[in-house]
Amino acid sequence: MPNVALQKVNIKSHLTGLFLYDGKTDRDIEIYPKTLEGRTAMADAIKSGTYPHPITVSNGAVIEANTVPPLEMPDAPATTYPAFSTGHMQAELATGAGSYTNAPGDENVRGTITDSSGNLTYNNVNNTLGATLSGFKFVHRYQTNTSEGGIGAYRINGGSWVNFTMTGNDGTRKTATLSNDITLQSGMNTIDFKWVSGTQWAQDWIEITRDATS
C-alpha cells in the first residue's frame, strides 16, 4: 500500500519567491521521499500543475489535483445554511404593551399598542443557524379596529427604530411584510414594537424566515 502522509505546503510566487498562502495535501513518501531531492520534486510538481493530489488551502478552498496553484488564494467555499422559520411567534407570549384573554394562538391578539402603552417586546427570537446572518424575511399580522391607518415602528436588539405603515382594517387582521432583509445574531434576539402615530393596533404574531443557501 502507498505510504501517504499529510504534508503542509507553502505556495510561493514563481516570479518573486514570495510566500502567497499555505495549505495541506497528501504526500506519497515513496514518490516524494523526505529528502532534499524528494522535497524538490514535490515542489516542482506542485508548481508545474502535475502534482497528483488536491491541495486544501488554509481557508478551506480546494485546488484540484494536477492544477497549477493560482497566484492569489482561492476564495473560501460558501457556507450553506438550511431553510429557517420561527413559526408564528404569538404576541400573547411577548411582554410589555397590551393584554389578552384565552389561550395564546392565531385566534387571539394582544392589544392595544398606543401612545401610552409602552413597547411590546418579543424576547426569545431564536436564530438557530449558528451564525449572525442577514437575509431574514420579517412578517407580522396585526388588527386595527377602525378604518384609520397609522405608523408603528420596530427595532432589533436595541438598534435603530424602523417605521412601518398600517392600514385601517376595521376589526379584521392583516398580514404584512416588514422587511425582506433583517439581520439576526446567532442565538436569542429581542424585537420591540411601538406606536408612532395614527391608529392603535393589536398584535397577533410575527414570523421570521430565511431561504436555504447553497
Give a verbal description of the structure.
With 214 residues, this protein is mainly beta. Strands 5, 6, 8, 10, 13 and 15 form a six-stranded antiparallel sheet that branches. A five-stranded antiparallel sheet has the order 7-9-14-11-12, with no helix packed on it. The protein has two domains: 4-63, no CATH class; 84-210, Jelly Rolls, CATH 2.60.120.260. The mean pLDDT is 93. The longest helix has 13 residues, at 36-48. The chain is built from one helix and 15 strands; from the N terminus they run E-E-H-E-E-E-E-E-E-E-E-E-E-E-E-E. It has one helix spanning 36-48; strands at residues 4-12, 19-28, 55-57, 62-63, 84-85, 89-90, 95-96, 110-113, 120-127, 133-143, 150-156, 162-166, 173-184, 187-198, 201-210.
Summarize the SSE layout with pairings:
Elements: E1 4-12, E2 19-28, H1 36-48, E3 55-57, E4 62-63, E5 84-85, E6 89-90, E7 95-96, E8 110-113, E9 120-127, E10 133-143, E11 150-156, E12 162-166, E13 173-184, E14 187-198, E15 201-210
Antiparallel strand pairs: 1-2, 2-3, 3-4, 5-15, 6-15, 7-9, 8-15, 9-14, 10-13, 10-15, 11-12, 11-14
Listing every helix as H and every strand as E from the N terminus to the C terminus, the arrangement reads EEHEEEEEEEEEEEEE
Categorize the overall geometry: rod-shaped
CATH architecture classification of the largest domain: Sandwich
Total number of domains? 2
Q: Report the sheet with the most strands, covering strand number, pairing sense and barrel closure.
A: 6 strands, antiparallel
Helix content: under 10%
Beta content? over 45%
